[in-house]
């Protein structure tokens, strides 16, 4: 949610920012309702004050004076009820409209309608042309008995898979490696819940704008399954007040995640690239507003540190306005080179929600001079396990179909090669 004061002072910027994200909003209607809301609120507060004043005066009056005051009090009561009803009605409509406004992108975010407008910032790592025909990860998995799609499909349907043998060890190697690296940077390890109440998902900005089609909802229990660990890490401090001296607060969470993959019919139906259930290591930061853009660069640097340690070529992409998502002001992706497809594939994203989610969650901090402000909240992928395994297997394959293990993971798996 945007600060209504910001909307008043920057109405054209808000309208343009929303439009660049693909949302058409009625700023004029919002400003009109906001004016009516302020006027009604002032009137209601005045009537309440007058009502309280009369209540304090009545015991001191004689009988005739008391009668006149009681009559006035009754009239104020009627008027107050009418004004309060009008105020509630306008408040409700205004709140709905405010909740429909996306976070406004920063001025230097590339403007574009969809992923075609994203901007590649830089390439990292060397893509080497192999002297042998590369196998894709499912061929390698079949050769070494690492992934079983057929049996998972038999039990659970499409877009599920079993990880097996060394692939399981590699998953937990990635988790432990990420945790070790990030703990040194002040991130607190977490295993968050994988179910969340829908009202908190809405406050995060993931319901009401089409995202609900991609979310699993357990109607009997009125809970939803998370699509990423951040969805139960970010609301931890809802309706709480943090202390400025404790910022930044950084967390790294590991959990299973669940997505319907709505709208992806026919895309990546084989293998483990686009599945309904996957594991993920996710970073979340709560920071001072003055530090959020700096923190965003820091989260991106942590992602790059992890990727460089795995010796996987990648590119860093600045995501355009139409692809940043409803709650985010800025987003970067890391896309890893996948030799089997001869293309880059997204494996990481990191986003800055500024104070947008904090306002909806009422997560604030007390400054050193005892003022209350909303924190800025950011998130970033450490490892999306399935996609990282794909990039790792394909980039480190050998001529005979073996898979070399990056040195950074040796101590976690106890072997240097598969096959």
TrEMBL record:
Species this chain originates from: Candidatus Spechtbacteria bacterium RIFCSPLOWO2_12_FULL_38_22
Encoding gene, per UniProt annotation: serS
Catalytic reaction equation(s): tRNA(Sec) + L-serine + ATP = L-seryl-tRNA(Sec) + AMP + diphosphate + H(+); tRNA(Ser) + L-serine + ATP = L-seryl-tRNA(Ser) + AMP + diphosphate + H(+)
E.C. designation(s): 6.1.1.11
Domain notes: Consists of two distinct domains, a catalytic core and a N-terminal extension that is involved in tRNA binding.
Domain Aminoacyl-transfer RNA synthetases class-II family profile: 136-406
Database matches in SUPFAM superfamilies: Class II aaRS and biotin synthetases, tRNA-binding arm
GO cellular component: cytoplasm
Name the UniProt record assigns to this protein: Serine--tRNA ligase
Keywords per UniProt: Aminoacyl-tRNA synthetase, ATP-binding, Coiled coil, Cytoplasm, Ligase, Nucleotide-binding, Protein biosynthesis
Description of how the protein assembles with itself and partners: Homodimer. The tRNA molecule binds across the dimer.
Recorded coiled-coil stretches: 30-93
Binding, ATP: 259-261, 275-278, 346-349
Known pathway: Aminoacyl-tRNA biosynthesis; selenocysteinyl-tRNA(Sec) biosynthesis; L-seryl-tRNA(Sec) from L-serine and tRNA(Sec): step 1/1
Molecular function GO terms recorded: ATP binding; serine-tRNA ligase activity
Localization annotation: Cytoplasm
PANTHER family registered for this protein in UniProt: SERINE--TRNA LIGASE, SERYL-TRNA SYNTHETASE
Residues the entry annotates as binding L-serine: 228-230, 259, 282, 379, 381
One GO BP annotation of this record: seryl-tRNA aminoacylation
